[in-house]
Design brief:
Elements lengths: L1 H25 L2 E6 L4 E2 L4 E9 L3 E4 L2 E2 L7 E7 L3 E10 L5 E10 L2
Parallel strand pairs: 2-8
Antiparallel strand pairs: 1-3, 3-6, 4-5, 4-7, 7-8
């Protein structure tokens, strides 16, 4: 009986450990809410927002992008006329990376 009880306790502890380790195992997640891909911005001003979950660093075109502890971020950008490519990259503390790209256009 003791052997079965020990097995059940170890099984529950292992299951709990896997549930708690899931965010570490999953790696970073990146969701861009704005800007939409291939969207025109006649004024050249746009708002960039989204969330980067489980990310230690967040960059926009290789420049650091500040984000809150909950992973959300928002910043206003002014872009030159023509097409621009915005490349977002989130990395966790283990070096795993995810990227997202948005193409935007400011008419002449």
């Amino acid at each position: 009986m003791t052997r079965y009880l020990l097995f059940v306790v170890l099984f529950l502890l292992a299951g709990y450990g896997l549930v708690e380790a899931q965010p570490i195992i999953a790696g970073p997640s990146l969701s861009i809410l704005s800007p939409k891909d291939n969207a025109p911005y006649p004024t050249g001003m746009l708002s960039v927002s989204g969330s980067a979950l489980r990310a230690a660093t967040l960059t926009l075109n290789d420049a650091p992008l500040p984000h809150h502890e909950d992973g959300s971020f928002a910043v206003a950008l002014t872009l030159p006329r023509g097409g621009s490519i915005l490349t977002f990259e989130a990395a966790d503390r283990f070096g795993r990376r995810v990227t997202a790209t948005r193409n935007v256009f400011v008419p002449f």
